[in-house]
Amino acid sequence: QLQASGGGLVQAGGSLRLSCAASALTLSQYSMAWFRQAPGNEREFVAAISRGGTVTAAADSVKGRLTISRDNAKNTMYLQMIRLKPEDTALYYCAARTDVTGGYSRRAHDFQYWGEGTLVTVSS
């Protein structure tokens, strides 16, 4: 129901834009987030966004470089990634959670729907 795309191989300092498209879900009803998992590491929070897109949050390690956004008319969420670093290399997952508060969550276990992930590899 969620499909992440846009990953690839990029040199350090480069940019990518990830997309997360939904089928059978109306994303305007869900707050959403991006998580990532590097080899040998646990899944970690990257960024989150409220249902309407007015409230966002990001992990300290990505602030100023990775920006979450959404276009509910297109039923799609995005992660704009700039000034990429080798430590950003990971499988990136998008996730959606039912929300009635207008807020967001950083906790993976709060999310009911997950995409398959898209691989981002940053070479030094």
- Proportion of residues in extended strands: over 45%
Number of strands: 11
What is the residue-averaged pLDDT? 96
- Helix content, binned percent: under 10%
**Shape designation:** globular
The helix-and-strand class reads mainly beta
| Rg on CA atoms, Å | 13 Å
Low-pLDDT runs of 5+ residues are none
Number of H- or I-type helical stretches: 0
Span between termini = 34 Å
The major pleated sheet works out as:
7 strands, mixed
The ordered string of helix (H) and strand (E) elements is EEEEEEEEEEE
Provide tags for this entry.
mainly beta; seven-stranded mixed β-sheet; four-stranded antiparallel β-sheet
Account of the protein in words:
This protein is 0% helix and 49% strand. It has no helices and 11 strands. It has strands spanning 2-5, 8-11, 16-22, 30-37, 44-49, 56-58, 66-71, 76-81, 90-98, 113-114, 118-123. Strands 2, 4, 5, 6, 9, 10 and 11 form a 7-stranded mixed β-sheet that branches. It has a 4-stranded antiparallel β-sheet with strand order 1-3-8-7, with no helix packed on it. The model has no long low-confidence stretch (mean pLDDT 96).
Element layout with pairings:
Blueprint: E1 2-5, E2 8-11, E3 16-22, E4 30-37, E5 44-49, E6 56-58, E7 66-71, E8 76-81, E9 90-98, E10 113-114, E11 118-123
Parallel strand pairs: 2-11
Antiparallel strand pairs: 1-3, 3-8, 4-5, 4-9, 5-6, 7-8, 9-10, 9-11
